[in-house]
GntR family transcriptional regulator
Amino acid sequence: MQITIDIDSATPLFSQLVMQIKQAVERGLIQPGDPLPSIRQLANDLDMNNKTVAKAYRLLERDSVIETKGYRGTFIHPDARANCTVDLNAWVKKQLNETISAFRKAGVTDSEIRIAFADVLNQSTGGSHD
């Protein structure tokens, strides 16, 4: 599997990494059970920050595309191919679009929506969730 990161792309580096690993799984270039490099090794190979690779791995694990087996390493999840089509970002955007449309119909301004969103997000997470 060849991963190529474009540092000049508008797409965040962690997103590029997630997309490329999912594409490799979908194309059968990597199979369930195949090992992945450690976070440190992949970060070194791609000349990236460890935290960026760790974030990509967390998202892939959340989506059950990869699984971490403690000290033994990180592997492609048995259901990875089916799980590659899960797009939580698209679902979140759809939900937000529907909610924002309802707010606008009720006469709420975009500024009020932004302020309320930030307030609720900060209250529910106690700050940053990443």
Remarks:
- The chain has a mean pLDDT of 91.
- The chain has two domains: 13-83, 88-125.
- The radius of gyration is 18 Å.
- The longest strand covers residues 66-68.
